[in-house]
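Good morning C.,

I know you're traveling, so I'll keep this short. The sequence:
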Amino acid sequence: MLALALAAGCGDTTFLFAFNSGVIVGPPSCTGPGGHFQLRDQAGLVLLVVITSDTVIVLANGGSGRCADLATNAQVGVDGGQRGDQITAKTVTVTG
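The tokens, ready to paste straight into the viewer:
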């Protein structure tokens, strides 16, 4: 994981703006414009990626996508806010 230098703290909670890359583990769960999936990062850690209606999904061909276009074993890059093992995705980019 590459965590950017911007972090905000509120009480005991730290919120990082981070970039992670890895592989989607299992089928994404999509509901309406949002959903979630598990990402195994390059260090082997499994993170929960939350997709909202504001998340931008970029497909491998450069086109725009949605949660239902994501698939198990796809290589992706994710940037967004991270709290613990959960990332609220701002952007999900399919790289392979």
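Safe travels,
E.
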